[in-house]
Write a structure and sequence with these properties.
Helices cover 40% and strands 22% of the residues. The chain has helices at 3-9, 20-31, 35-55, 99-110; strands at residues 60-62, 66-73, 76-80, 83-87, 90-97. The longest helix has 21 residues, at 35-55. The protein has 130 residues and is an alpha+beta fold. Helix 2 crosses helix 3. A three-stranded antiparallel sheet has the order 1-2-5. Strands 3-4 form a two-stranded antiparallel sheet.
Length: 130
């Protein structure tokens, strides 16, 4: 099925919310560690992403997940009725999901089984039926 068709169908997937405490409990249970250790892992990852992207001003790419980068938005005038206000330039954190993550999300939303890419021993690229 073409990915463009999936976008037009507007498939809704019921989502539940998860806060930080629940997420740390989820990671602890899944990895078989205590919540204290999972909390330290969570803090280390968030601190690492924050310091690399914001303080070091680098584009952080995590293979199979996505990339984080700072994006500068140009200042512009804003008009509210009679008052003209100028908004200065500002930076925002931008996340771009990887192609692999997007493919997985499309498969989950559509309820499709995604085929695993076949790895061959020859060096020639092969076509994969999707």
């Amino acid at each position: 099925m073409c990915p463009y068709i999936l976008r037009k169908e507007r498939i809704d997937v019921a989502q539940t919310k998860m806060n930080k405490r629940e997420f740390i409990g989820y990671i602890a249970k899944r990895q078989g560690v205590t919540k204290v250790i999972a909390s330290k892992m969570y803090d280390a990852v968030i601190d690492g992403i924050t310091s690399a992207v914001i303080e070091e001003n680098v584009r952080l790419s995590l293979m199979g997940f996505g990339s984080f980068e700072l994006k500068t938005h140009r200042g512009h005038p804003v008009r509210f009725c009679d008052n003209a206000v100028s908004v200065d330039s500002y930076q925002v954190l931008r996340f771009t999901p990887s192609t692999a993550l997007n493919r997985e999300l499309r498969g989950v939303k559509a309820g499709l089984e995604l085929p695993e890419p076949e790895v061959s021993e020859s060096s020639e690229p092969q076509a994969v039926d999707v």
